[in-house]
């Protein structure tokens, strides 16, 4: 049985490689994230940001190393990695639409319970669930089916699920995509609050949001680390400016932004197939 | 060695027939992500078409070559009708599509039972398939050789069609990524319909071949659907190469087991083998690896 | 939707129990009571299908296999009971000198038989489910593999005439654990046991659906990958539901034998398995009562229309699949909610099933 990490541990990713049938999505990425900071992973589409998270959470096979404290994460099945204290959200909020907010959170809290409790009916609301609801401002939605929550609320519900799950590492994939300005502010403040005791790693496109809330930033480009440091340092980096603002870069970045990351990988796949054929 | 040759030859013919039945299934399954359980009945329609063509063209030497394209078109039209009337409404509900097509297959079976004599109909074998080919001292019926040739031709034609025509490329693009194909300006609706037509048509061709080897009756389709699916599953979705190898493997395997034990035990053994195989390779023999989990 | 009104449902089970256990025996003729008992057997299996398919999302198309495990265990015991110390009659006909097959021998024991009815399906479904779910075999693959198993087993039984009675099956049972089956009072008792078991199964799923496990099962059905990311192994969740469904099918099969008096491969093969699905789809796969009521309705149609107008009955079943799945995927039990929604006006959306599918698409 694996024991969950203690709360002081850091997430250290070293030389991460992910390949899809020959297409290198992530080629040797290293970074670390510590409790107390809101760590951002940014980069143009196809840079490999989500793939990094997929690799750390066991969704994609990868080589290299991703350690939480002393525990190696790579090579374990998804649910075992979760039990080590690594939680994530998805680009499109994925909550259980047919279940209520409370039921969603109750399931998230369930892995700490004995299996016999599964056969019983839920009575009352766990204190940890109540706390997470307050933290995310969802107390009034307790009985609402998750399917009819607004987009922003779904994202918060996902974060609340990570909180009751007591994840030490929160990997958030575009948590503010599609949110209004006020919702973004609320989310940013929420992230800063929960980052006090946990490792928060955010994949984002929104540069404004990144500037306001990032403690440290890693910029990925074409599967490699382009630049790393504080917001100011990264913004001053000429390489970053070239990718984001450079004459050639601007046009491609804008064009690429329309194509989702998987689609890019798919395209690469298809092209590869054709070249084989 | 002597105990090996008959089941091997027999099995490769059986495998070729399975391949014909599975070919269309693999196309429609790869395309829609769902099993058409009425596929077996399209095969049955092909077999009955061979019989009907024989009622018009007396000479069986001639009627079978004529029946092949006719069965392709007739079964294809049935498939098209199914796609337009029912399946197109259900693309987002794969398991439900499976059940709806179970209903369609029940209706088609019952209709065949009422239209044709319940004991089935005789399809005359053409004279030029009467002989035998002597292979390593064993007489190999020409009918079996014909099935293998027919399967080879169909596979080659399908592969060429998929690879060299623009429609084929569109189908492959849609199989790989429906949304992306749509974004790229491919009318997936047209692609779906054409795929269904061709896939079902191939079942019709398989039916003609089946009518030459076994009986032609209302339940013949039901015999083929499960093994054909196992072939598709073992071969890997949308993988022509995998489907071919799996069909031959299952055909030869079934034939060997049946030769050494009994036909029914062979089925059970084949089932266990497929389960074991899926333990080792849950995605089939060949897979397209992408980031998304299948 | 999943908003449960537990006490209302419990009251419903109570009414159902009174109807089956008190009203039916007093108003129905022996013939119809026996028929109702037969439908109850299918209903028990259907309740399990509702658990696995309706709540768990596993389309079990081969429940005939587990039905067979219970049915043939019971039939072997009853056959031996009828034969006394000797070898069953059909075996003697086939080969007068051959001894009883070894696997029959333990079924002389009542305790072993009862144990087998429970343990065999649990072990079989456990092994099969573990192998498939751990390797993430699901959806159409899972459905077809289970059906392939039903086809394979039915073929195997058909061909082993001496061991299992082949296509003619096992029949002519005189005793049921010492009770003479010809006696109407004993037949009523067998019916009451069956109806009681059906009510018990309903109570079990009622508790399961309102428990945390029920919520987890629905969550696993709708977004398996998401559940994995909460630290659960979805394979285990599905395994429990699948094994439960298998156990219920086996119990249904076991009671089918003394009530109907015969078990043949036709009752366990692909067609029979599909008919079980038909009832569940008709009644409402995810609801508490839908599967049982749907199975009783289809059972009634099967034994009345199926014998008087067989061609028509096949068309009806075929159309039932098409119409219900196409237009009423949640079955008849979703009609009241639909009417209520219609009365509320078209502006209010019922729920977001489309959104659920999207979620599935995202995470799987």
TrEMBL record, chain A:
The keyword Nucleus does not apply. CDD domains: ABC_Mj1267_LivG_branched. Coiled coil: none annotated. Keywords: ATP-binding, Nucleotide-binding, Transport. Residues 11-247 form the ABC transporter domain. One of its GO terms (cellular component) is plasma membrane. GO terms for molecular function: ATP binding; ATP hydrolysis activity. SUPFAM superfamilies: P-loop containing nucleoside triphosphate hydrolases. The keyword Cell cycle does not apply. This is ABC transporter ATP-binding protein.
From TrEMBL, chain B:
It is a multi-pass membrane protein. GO terms for cellular component: plasma membrane. It is found in: Cell membrane. Coiled coil: none annotated. InterPro entries: ABC_transp_permease, ABC_UrtB_bac, BCAA_transport_permease. GO terms for molecular function: transmembrane transporter activity. Keywords: Amino-acid transport, Cell membrane, Membrane, Transmembrane, Transmembrane helix, Transport. The chain crosses the membrane at residues 12-30, 63-86, 98-116, 145-162, 194-214, 268-288. Belongs to the binding-protein-dependent transport system permease family. LivHM subfamily. This is Branched-chain amino acid ABC transporter permease. PANTHER family: ABC TRANSPORTER PERMEASE PROTEIN (PTHR11795:SF447), BRANCHED-CHAIN AMINO ACID TRANSPORT SYSTEM PERMEASE PROTEIN LIVH (PTHR11795).
TrEMBL record, chain C:
It is found in: Cell membrane. GO terms for cellular component: plasma membrane. Signal peptide: none annotated. Coiled coil: none annotated. It holds the Pfam family BPD_transp_2. It is a multi-pass membrane protein. One of its GO terms (molecular function) is branched-chain amino acid transmembrane transporter activity. InterPro entries: ABC_transp_permease, ABC_transptr_urea_perm_UrtC, LivM-like. Keywords: Cell membrane, Membrane, Transmembrane, Transmembrane helix. The chain crosses the membrane at residues 36-53, 60-80, 111-133, 189-209, 239-263, 275-300, 312-329. PANTHER family: HIGH-AFFINITY BRANCHED-CHAIN AMINO ACID TRANSPORT SYSTEM PERMEASE, SLR1201 PROTEIN. NCBIfam families: urea_trans_UrtC (TIGR03408). This is Urea ABC transporter permease subunit UrtC.
């Amino acid at each position: 049985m694996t024991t969950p990490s203690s709360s002081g541990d850091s997430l250290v990713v070293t030389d991460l490689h992910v390949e899809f049938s020959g297409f290198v999505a992530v080629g040797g990425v290293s970074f670390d994230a510590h409790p107390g900071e809101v760590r951002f992973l940014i980069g143009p589409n196809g840079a490999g940001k989500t793939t990094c998270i997929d690799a750390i959470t066991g969704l994609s096979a990868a080589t290299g190393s991703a350690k939480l404290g002393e525990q190696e994460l790579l090579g374990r099945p998804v649910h075992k990695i979760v039990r080590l204290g690594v939680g994530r959200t998805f680009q499109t909020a994925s909550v259980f639409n047919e279940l209520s907010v409370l039921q969603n959170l109750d399931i998230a809290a369930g892995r700490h319970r004995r299996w016999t409790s599964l056969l019983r009916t839920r009575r009352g609301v766990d204190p940890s669930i109540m706390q997470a609801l307050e933290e995310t401002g969802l107390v009034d939605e307790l009985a609402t089916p998750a399917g009819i929550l607004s987009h922003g609320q779904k994202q918060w519900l996902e974060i609340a699920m990570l909180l009751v799950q007591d994840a030490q590492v929160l990997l958030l994939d575009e948590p503010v995509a599609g949110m209004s300005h006020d919702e973004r502010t609320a989310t940013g403040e929420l992230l800063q609050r929960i980052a006090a005791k946990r490792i928060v790693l955010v994949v984002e496109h929104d540069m404004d949001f990144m500037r306001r809330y990032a403690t440290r930033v890693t910029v990925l480009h074409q599967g490699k680390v382009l630049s790393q440091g504080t917001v100011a340092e990264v913004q001053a980096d000429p390489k970053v400016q070239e990718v984001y603002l450079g004459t050639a870069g601007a046009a491609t970045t804008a064009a690429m932004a329309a194509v989702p990351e998987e689609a890019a990988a798919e395209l690469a796949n298809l092209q590869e197939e054709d070249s084989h054929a | 060695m002597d105990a090996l040759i008959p089941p091997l030859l027999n099995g490769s013919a059986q495998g070729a027939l399975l391949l014909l039945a599975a070919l269309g299934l693999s196309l429609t399954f790869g395309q829609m992500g769902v099993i058409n359980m009425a596929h077996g009945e399209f095969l049955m329609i092909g077999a009955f078409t061979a019989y009907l063509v024989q009622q018009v063209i007396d000479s069986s030497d001639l009627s079978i070559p004529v029946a092949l394209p006719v069965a392709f078109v007739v079964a294809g039209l049935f498939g098209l009708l199914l796609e337009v009337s029912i399946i197109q409404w259900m693309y987002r509900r794969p398991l439900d599509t499976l059940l709806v097509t179970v209903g369609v297959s029940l209706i088609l079976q019952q209709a065949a039972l009422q239209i044709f004599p319940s004991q089935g109909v005789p399809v005359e074998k053409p004279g030029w398939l009467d002989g035998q080919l002597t292979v390593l001292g064993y007489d190999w019926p020409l009918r079996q050789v014909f099935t293998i040739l027919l399967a080879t031709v169909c596979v080659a034609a399908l592969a060429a069609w998929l690879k060299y025509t623009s429609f084929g490329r569109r189908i492959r693009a849609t199989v790989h990524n429906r949304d992306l194909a749509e974004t790229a300006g491919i009318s997936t609706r047209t692609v779906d319909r054409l795929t269904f037509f061709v896939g079902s048509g191939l079942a019709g061709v398989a039916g003609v071949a089946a009518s030459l080897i076994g009986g032609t009756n209302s339940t013949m389709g039901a015999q083929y659907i499960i093994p054909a699916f196992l072939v598709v599953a073992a071969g890997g979705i949308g993988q022509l190469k995998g489907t071919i190898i799996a069909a031959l493997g299952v055909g030869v395997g079934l034939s060997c087991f049946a030769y050494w034990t009994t036909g029914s035990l062979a089925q059970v053994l084949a089932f266990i083998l497929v389960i074991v195989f899926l333990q080792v390779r849950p995605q089939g023999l060949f897979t397209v690896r992408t980031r998304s989990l299948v | 939707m999943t908003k449960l009104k537990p006490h209302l449902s419990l009251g419903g089970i109570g009414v159902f129990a009174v109807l089956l256990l008190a009203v039916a025996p007093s108003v129905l003729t022996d013939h119809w009571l026996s028929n109702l008992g037969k439908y109850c057997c299918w209903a028990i299996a259907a309740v399990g299908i509702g658990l696995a398919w309706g709540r768990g999302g596993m389309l079990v198309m081969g429940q005939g296999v587990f039905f067979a495990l219970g049915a043939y265990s019971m039939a072997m015991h009853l056959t031996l009971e009828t034969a006394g110390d000797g070898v069953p009659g059909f075996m003697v006909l086939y080969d007068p000198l051959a001894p009883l097959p070894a696997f029959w021998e333990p079924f002389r024991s009542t305790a072993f038989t009862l144990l087998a009815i429970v343990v065999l399906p649990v072990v079989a479904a456990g092994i099969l489910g573990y192998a498939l779910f751990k390797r993430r075999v699901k959806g159409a693959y899972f459905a077809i593999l289970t059906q392939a198993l039903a086809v394979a087993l039915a073929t195997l039984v058909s061909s082993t005439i001496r061991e299992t009675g082949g296509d003619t099956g096992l029949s002519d049972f005189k005793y049921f654990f010492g009770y003479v089956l010809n006696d109407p009072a004993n037949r009523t008792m067998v019916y009451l046991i069956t109806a009681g078991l059906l009510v018990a199964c309903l109570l079990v799923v009622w508790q399961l659906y309102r428990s945390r496990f029920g919520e987890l099962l629905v969550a696993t059905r709708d977004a398996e990958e998401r559940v994995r990311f909460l630290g659960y192994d979805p394979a285990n969740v599905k395994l429990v539901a699948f094994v439960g469904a298998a156990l219920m099918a086996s119990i249904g099969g076991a009671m089918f034998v003394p009530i109907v008096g015969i078990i043949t491969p036709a009752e366990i093969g692909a067609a029979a398995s599909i008919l079980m699905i038909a009832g569940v789809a008709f009644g409402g796969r995810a609801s508490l009562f839908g599967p049982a009521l749907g199975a009783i309705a289809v059972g009634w149609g099967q034994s009345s229309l199926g014998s008087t107008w067989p061609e028509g009955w096949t068309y009806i079943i075929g159309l039932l699949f098409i119409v219900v799945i196409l237009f009423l995927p949640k079955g008849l039990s979703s009609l009241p909610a639909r009417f209520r929604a219609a009365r509320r006006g078209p502006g209010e959306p019922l729920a977001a099933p489309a959104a659920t599918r999207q979620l599935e698409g995202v995470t799987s």
